[in-house]
Structure formats: structure tokens, C-alpha cells
Design brief:
Pfam families: Sortase. It comes from Cutibacterium granulosum DSM 20700. By secondary structure, the protein is α+β, with helices and mostly antiparallel strands. It is built from four helices and ten strands, in the order H-E-E-H-H-E-E-H-E-E-E-E-E-E.
């Protein structure tokens, strides 16, 4: 709410000017009469009052709209700033809560949880289950499936990070493999993201095999930016999950795709360790 102290000068000016003009127009305010030579009386003071009234009206017609606009703008600014302040505070509180929940989720994962995911391309629990619904809410700021973003400069790839490995997620971005750590980092965590290679009209992870030791990628989640540097590359059969095992004290992330393109008999795993 705008303080009345800010409004008072303009309001008083408006009231005073309006009352003065009305009184003068009705002749309720009489100005002194001046008597001229020859006995003729001239109402010079009264005419002077009318002139003042006209001046007040003229000034009011210029000042009042400006003052009114100023007050209106000030009120609008105040309301916008108040909404923004509430929104920012609410969003930041929500983000902090999401990050805390994500870290709690990661800590709750058994070290052997990676053994339960099966083929990373088919790692979702049944849709509609309580477990799935809870998972879908993690790192979801506004009920969206997007957790964050993945950027791989060496192969010019930017993809959204999506919940689960259903067909839509695999074809639209980097799909987070359910059962592995959420992409918020932390000691003894190992996040796994997967996507298609050789997908018609979409690059996705097609060029993942071009990454070499020392290349890096970044993930941005809930306003936090995490950078991982490639420390290992490996081609395995779909059932070999040993490369996805969390390692005590290390913050790891693996990018997984099918290989060779078009054959899809094996899985290419590129693993990075967090450097910042």
C-alpha cells in the first residue's frame, strides 16, 4: 500500500484549488473594490480574483493529471514489486525445498540400486504408482517433466533433462534413468542420463562417441550449474551395469546411448567426474 504521506500534497492541492475556484465562481469570496476618480467604482479586485481562479484552473488542468499519473504509476510499481518479491521468495523457497528433497532422495538410494535398473533404456517403474508419482515430483518446479538442462560443448548439444526413460523422454532430451541419483551432485552419487543415437531429424546422443577423455559437460538444475569432465569411455552389452556403480567419495555422471548406430546391440557409456 502506498503511504498517504506520498499522496497528501497532491490531494490537498486538488481540494484547495477546486474549492477556491468554486467559491470564486459563486462570488462567495469578494475582493476589495477600488474607487476611481469621478465617482465610478471599478471591481478591479474582483476581476483580479477571477483571473487568479482561471490561473488556478489552468495550473490544475496541467498538474493534476501529471500528479494522478505519477500516483497511479507509483501504485502499479509498488504492486508489481510486491508480487515479484512474493514470487521470488516463493520460488526460491520452492527451489531450496526441491534441492533438499533431491539430495534426500539420493541419500536414500542403496549403493546397489543401479543393479535394479536393467537396461537403462527401459528403467521406469509402472506409471501411476505411488513411487512413480513421487519421483515425477522431484525437481519439478511447476509440475513439468523437465528437471534441468544438459550442455555438451564439444559436440554442440543442449538438451532438457527429463524424468524417466519412456519413449517421449528418450526422443525429446536426456532421460534420467530411474533408480540412479538425481542430477544435483553429491559425494558417492552416480547419475545416469540416456538418449537415442541416430534418431531421424534429431542429434540427441548421436555424436556421443566423439567425446574424449578431458572433454566436459554441464548440467543446470534449479539454478545450480555442475560441470563434469570425462574420465572414462566404455562399450558394454546392455546387461553389464558395473560401470554405473556409485563409487564412495566420488561425484559421477554417465551418459549412455545405443551403439553401433542402427544396430543398437551394445551401450556406449561415457562417464564424467564433477570438477565444479
Amino acid at each position: 500500500m502506498i503511504e498517504w504521506s506520498a499522496r497528501l500534497p497532491s490531494v490537498l492541492f486538488y481540494v484547495f484549488g477546486t474549492v477556491l475556484c468554486v467559491f470564486i465562481a459563486l462570488g462567495l469570496i469578494q475582493f476589495p473594490k477600488n474607487v476611481e476618480q469621478g465617482g465610478r467604482t471599478h471591481h478591479i479586485g474582483l476581476w483580479r480574483g477571477y483571473l487568479v481562479a482561471l490561473m488556478v484552473l489552468a495550473i490544475s488542468s496541467f498538474v493534476l493529471p501529471t500528479a494522478s499519473q505519477y500516483l497511479s504509476n507509483a501504485k502499479a510499481r509498488h504492486r508489481i514489486e510486491a508480487v515479484q518479491a512474493r514470487t521470488t521468495a516463493a520460488q526460491q523457497a520452492r527451489i531450496d525445498r526441491l534441492l533438499a528433497d533431491a539430495h534426500d532422495y539420493n541419500r536414500s538410494l542403496p549403493l546397489d540400486s543401479y543393479l535394479r535398473i536393467g537396461d537403462p533404456a527401459a528403467g521406469n517403474p509402472a506409471r501411476g504408482t505411488t513411487t512413480q508419482n513421487r519421483y515425477d515430483q522431484l525437481l519439478s518446479l511447476d509440475g513439468e517433466a523437465v528437471m534441468g538442462g544438459l550442455s555438451i560443448p564439444a559436440i554442440d548439444v543442449q538438451l532438457p533433462i527429463l524424468h524417466g526413460t519412456d519413449p517421449d523422454a528418450l526422443s525429446d532430451g536426456a532421460a534420467h534413468v530411474y533408480g540412479t541419483a538425481l542430477p544435483v551432485g553429491g559425494e558417492s552419487t552416480h547419475t545416469v542420463l540416456t538418449s537415442h543415437a541416430g534418431w531421424s531429424g534429431r542429434r540427441l546422443f548421436t555424436d556421443l562417441d566423439r567425446l574424449t577423455i578431458g572433454d566436459s559437460w554441464t548440467v543446470t538444475v534449479a539454478g545450480e550449474k555442475l560441470t563434469y569432465k570425462v574420465v572414462a569411455r566404455k562399450v558394454v552389452v546392455p546387461t553389464d551395469l558395473t560401470s554405473l556403480k556409485p563409487q564412495p567419495g566420488r561425484d559421477l555422471m554417465s551418459l549412455v546411448t545405443c551403439t553401433p548406430v542402427g544396430v543398437n546391440s551394445h551401450r556406449l557409456i561415457v562417464t564424467g567426474e564433477r570438477v565444479s
